[in-house]
Specification:
This protein folds into 2 domains: about 170 residues, Thiolase/Chalcone synthase (Peroxisomal Thiolase, Chain A, domain 1); about 150 residues, Peroxisomal Thiolase, Chain A, domain 1. It is built from 11 helices and 13 strands. A 9-stranded mixed sheet has the order 5-4-6-7-1-8-13-12-11, with helices on both faces. A two-stranded antiparallel ribbon has the order 2-3. β4, α4 and β5 form a beta-alpha-beta unit. α3 crosses α4 and α8 packs across α9. It is globular. The structure holds coenzyme A. Coenzyme A (COA) binds next to α2, α6, α8 and β12. It is found in: Cytoplasm. This is Beta-ketoacyl-[acyl-carrier-protein] synthase III. Pathway: Lipid metabolism; fatty acid biosynthesis.
C-alpha cells in the first residue's frame, strides 16, 4: 500500500531553551538600543542555552516531540540527520549523540553542514532516502547553539542570533504533508561574506586565532542582505514554475528567519502581502538551521496551516547556500 505514497512530514516538534535574552539585556552589553535592533532586524528577544545545555540536548528534545507527534518510537528510526553549524564537537557528529540520547539503536546518523539553508538540504536528503525506498522513517533535525559562536562584544553581529531546535519525521504517507519538491543551490565564490574563519584546517585553534576573535560568526551584513533577497526571490519563482504553479497558489511562505527586512523585501518583490509569510523572528532571532522547523511547528500550532494548503519553505545562508521546498499540507 505504501508504494504509491510519497515522502511526507508525519511529525513535527520544536524546543527552545528557557533563558530569554532581550534587546534591553544587549543594551547593557554593547552600544546598541532596543529601537535600533527592532527597526533594523525585527528582533525583540532571543533564547540562549544555559546550565551546560548543548546542541544535541536541544535536538533531542525537539526530536522527542516530533516522534510523539508521528507516533514513532526510537527503534523505528532508520536514519538521523542533523543540520547544524554548532555541533557538540567537530566529530563525531551531533546526530550520533542524539542517537544515543534517544536510544535509537537501529538508526544510522550523520550531520549536514549547509548553514542557514541546512534544514532544506537535510529534508532533501531525508525525502530521497524515503522516496527511493531505502528507508522508511527518517528523523531530520535543525539544531543550533549559535550563542556559542556569537561575539557578544560585537554589536554588528550579536544582536541577530539565538539558540533552538526543530525536528520532523519523514515517512511515506498519503494522509500527511507531502513534500512535493526540494531545490538546492550554492555559490562558493561568495564563501567569505558569511563565515566563521577560525577552528578549521585553514586556521586551527591557536592563541592567535582566539586573540583575533576568529572563532565567531563574521559577515558583511549589507552584502548578505542583498544576496539573500535576490536569491530567495529567484528560487521561490523557479520553484513555483517547476511545480507547475503560480506564486498566487502558495498559501504560506515559511522563510528562514534572518532579518524581518529581508522577509519584507522578498514579499514585496514577489508582490505578495506579508500575511502570506510566517514570521517569528521577534521572539527567537536567527536560529540558523533551526529556524524553519521551529517556524513550521509554530505556524501549525497557530492554525496557519490547513489541509491542502501549499506551503513554501525557503532559506538562505553561509556557503553561500540556499534552498526551497514545497509541501502540500
Ligand atoms: C546586520 C544588519 C542587521 C545591519 O543592518 P544595516 O541596516 O545594513 O545596518 P548597517 O550595517 O548599514 O549599519 C548602520 C549603522 O548602524 C550601526 N550599527 C550596526 N549595528 C548596530 C547595533 N547593533 N546597534 C546600533 N547601531 C548599530 C553601524 O555602525 C552603522 O553606523 P554608521 O552609519 O555610523 O556607520 C543587516 O545588514 C543584516 O541583517 N544583514 C544580514 C546579516 C547576516 O549575514 N545574517 C545571516 C544570514 S542567514
Amino acid at each position: 500500500m505504501r508504494q504509491n505514497q510519497r515522502a511526507s512530514i508525519t511529525g513535527i516538534g520544536s524546543y527552545l531553551p528557557g533563558k530569554v535574552l532581550t534587546n534591553y539585556d544587549l543594551e547593557k552589553m554593547v552600544d546598541t538600543s532596543d529601537d535600533w535592533i527592532i527597526q533594523r532586524t525585527g528582533i525583540k528577544e532571543r533564547r540562549i542555552v544555559e546550565n551546560g545545555q548543548i546542541t544535541s540536548d536541544l535536538a533531542t528534545q525537539a526530536s522527542l516531540k516530533a516522534m510523539e507527534d508521528a507516533g514513532v518510537y526510537p527503534h523505528d528510526l532508520d536514519m538521523i540527520i542533523t543540520s547544524t553549524i554548532t555541533p557538540d564537537h567537530f566529530f563525531p557528529s551531533t546526530s550520533c549523540f542524539v542517537q544515543q540520547k534517544l536510544g535509537a539503536t537501529r538508526a544510522g546518523a550523520f550531520d549536514i553542514l549547509a548553514a542557514c539553508a541546512g534544514f532544506i538540504y537535510a529534508i532533501s536528503v531525508g525525502q530521497s532516502f524515503v522516496n527511493s525506498g531505502a528507508m522508511e522513517t527518517v528523523l531530520v533535525i535543525g539544531a543550533e547553539c549559535l550563542s556559542t559562536i556569537t561575539d557578544f562584544t560585537d554589536r554588528t553581529t550579536c544582536v541577530l542570533f539565538g539558540d533552538g531546535a526543530g525536528a520532523v519525521i519523514i515517512q511515506k504517507s498519503s494522509a500527511k504533508h507531502e513534500i512535493l519538491s526540494t531545490s538546492l543551490a550554492a555559490d562558493g565564490s561568495q564563501a567569505d561574506v558569511l563565515i566563521m574563519p577560525g577552528g578549521g584546517a585553514k586556521t586551527p585553534a591557536s592563541v592567535e586565532s582566539v586573540q583575533q576573535r576568529t572563532h565567531y560568526i563574521h559577515f558583511r551584513g549589507k552584502e548578505v542582505f542583498k544576496l539573500a533577497i535576490n536569491n530567495i526571490t529567484s528560487m521561490i519563482l523557479e520553484t513555483v514554475n517547476k511545480n507547475g504553479l503560480t506564486i498566487e497558489d502558495i498559501d504560506l511562505i515559511i522563510p528562514h528567519q534572518s532579518n524581518l527586512r529581508i522577509i519584507e523585501a522578498t514579499m514585496e518583490k514577489l508582490g505578495l502581502p506579508m500575511e502570506k509569510a510566517f514570521v517569528n523572528i521577534d521572539k527567537y532571532g536567527n536560529t540558523s538551521s533551526a529556524s524553519i522547523p521551529i517556524a513550521i511547528d509554530e505556524a501549525r500550532k497557530e492554525g496557519r496551516l490547513s489541509k491542502g494548503d501549499l506551503v513554501m519553505l525557503v532559506a538562505f545562508g553561509g556557503g553561500l547556500t540556499w534552498g526551497s521546498s514545497v509541501i502540500r499540507w
